[in-house]
Amino acid sequence: MRVFSALLIGLIFGAGIAVSGMINPAKIFNFFDIAGTWDPSLAFVMGGALVVTFIGYRLVWRRQRPVFDSQFHLPTRKDLDPALIGGAALFGIGWGIAGFCPGGAIPALGLGEAQAFIFVAAMLAGLWGMRLLRSLKG
Description:
Blueprint: H1 2-19, H2 25-32, H3 41-60, H4 82-98, H5 102-108, H6 114-137
Organism: Pseudogemmobacter lacusdianii
Protein name: YeeE/YedE family protein
Keywords: Membrane, Transmembrane, Transmembrane helix
């Protein structure tokens, strides 16, 4: 049931990304082009996501435990280490260059666009490379 619920949530998220047009890199590029063909729709999508998340967290925290687990698993670290800052910077740079983030690229694979496949391959290579570096670091 846990895997099914994760799949269902992922499908709903992907459908929302697709319906909002955020699988189209041009929408992202136009959002960042403030002096040119600025398109504020990404800000509205993000704002809507924040409202849903705010409400969702208020409902979830009323529960003693998650529906499909025995306890909540919350991060314990609160510091900003170089890996977090570097990863966030790489995410933002990659998003600005490619027009994709993981949340938009996965649903975009369904369109069969080469750009989406190249982005996802590069993303997976980056994940693999980081794991390799961390294992070598010890």
